[in-house]
Amino acid sequence: MDTPHCHDGADPSGNLICPACAQPRTAGHYLCRSCWFALPAPARAALSRRDRHALTRLRQLIDQLGKGQPPAAIEVTP
Ligand SMILES: [Zn+2]
Question: Which of 34, 39, 64, 78 is most buried, by the most CB atoms less than 10 A from its CB?
């Protein structure tokens, strides 16, 4: 059976999926564990902060992943 993937964060059954690799991810995390740890350390640190730029960084992350950029090449607002 073919299950279409929605890259906005959840599959049709409501399971959270990783926008980088479409594997299941944990609620409260942007990416699955392996993609999260593949991010460059500065990007990971920036994405962990919840300040007024948090949404901007999340958009940058999703945007770059959407263009096919690998997690290791992601850059976000520091
Ligand atoms: Zn992933």
Answer: 39
